[in-house]
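## retry 2 of 3
previous attempt timed out at serialization; input unchanged, resubmitting
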Amino acid sequence: MYPMLKPALRRAWRSHGTVQFGTTRAHAVKFGPLDITTGSFLELLDGTRGLPLLYEEARALGLSEAQVDTLVDRLVNAGLADDVRAAGAEADALRSRPGALERHRPDLASLSVVHPEPGGGMRRLAARRAMRVQVRGAGRVGAAIAAVLSGSGVGRVEVLDGGHAEPSDVSPGGLPATAVGERRDTAARQLVRRSAPGTAPRATETAGSPGGGEPGLSLVVVAPRDGFSVYVPDPRSAEPWITSGTPHLYAGVMEATGIVGPLVLPGGTACAQCMALERAARDPDWTRMLSQWRSGRRTAVQACDLGLATAVAGLAAAHALSFLDGDLPASTGTRWEAALPLLDWRAERWSPRLDCTCGAAGDIGRDRSSGSEARQDTMAG
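## retry succeeded, writing output
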C-alpha cells in the first residue's frame, strides 16, 4: 500500500488534538485524537512511500510500526486516505497514459472524495473508458454535454443529429463558429474527439437507431435542439429504450426554462408514457393542447439563452457521470427546472403509472440512493 491523504480535502486543526479534513458540510470529517508527532507524520502520507519506508521514517519520529498501521487503518476507515496503486488492471492502464491522467487529476480528486474507499476514485475513472453513451442532439445543450462526457473520460461518446450546423448552434462549450455549414453529426464527432483527454483516438459514431440495436450502450442523453421534446417527451421515441432496458436522461431548454431529468430507469422509474398519462389525468385539456403544439412546422427561433443552456449542459453531464459511476443522482425519476430570470431550481417527482405498460409501477418502492448524501462527521479515536 502507498497511502496518500486525500489531496482534495483541506486540513485545519479544530482544537488541540483534533484535525478537520475538508471544509464543506457534505464531506468534512473530524479526526482525532492526534499529538504533535503523529500530526507531523501525516505530512509523509503523500503517496510516494510504501509502508516499509513509512515504518523507517516513523521510527525516526519515535513511532512504532504498530502505531503506523493503526493510524493508516483509521484514516482509511474514515475515508481520508487513498492508495495510489490500488484499483486493478483498468486503473494501471490509465496510469500508463500520463497525458490523459494529468488531464484527469481534478476529476480523480473529486471522485476520491465522493467514493472514499482506497482506489475508489481511480477505479471509477478507469471504468468510464469502457462505457458507451449516446447523446441525441448537437445544439447548444447536446453538443456541450457530449464534450463534457468525452473530456471526463467516457470512452465512446456518440452524437446523433441531422442537418447542418447554424450560427445559433455555436456555443463556447459546444460547436465552434468554424462548424457553421458543416453536417452537425460531423462537427459533433470532431468536438468529441478534441475534448477527449490524451492522444489515443476515441471511437465515436453518429449513426444508428435509438438504443443502436448494439450491446454495451450505458446511457442515452436526450438533448434535442427543440426543447419541447424534452419538456413533453414523445413516448414513441422512447419505446426502443424501454424495450431494451436502456437508461435515458432528458435535458434541454424550453421557453427560457432549463430542464434536467428525469433519468428514466426502464422498469424502475416513470417513463415518457407515464408522464403523458399523468399529465392527461391532471389536466382534461392537455391532450387537445398537445395535438396543437405538435401539429404543423415550427420555423421560429427556439428560446435558448446561452448561459442557461450551458448551465443545463453542465448539470446534465454531472448527473450522467454520477449515474455512470454507479450512483443514482437526484434526477432519477425527477425533473429539475429553473426559469429565467430567477433561476430557482425546483424538482418535480414523476411516479410510475399502473396503467402504463412499462411495468415500473410494480417497483415503486425501489430503494433510491444518492452519492451526494452528506457523510456524518467521524471522530476517530
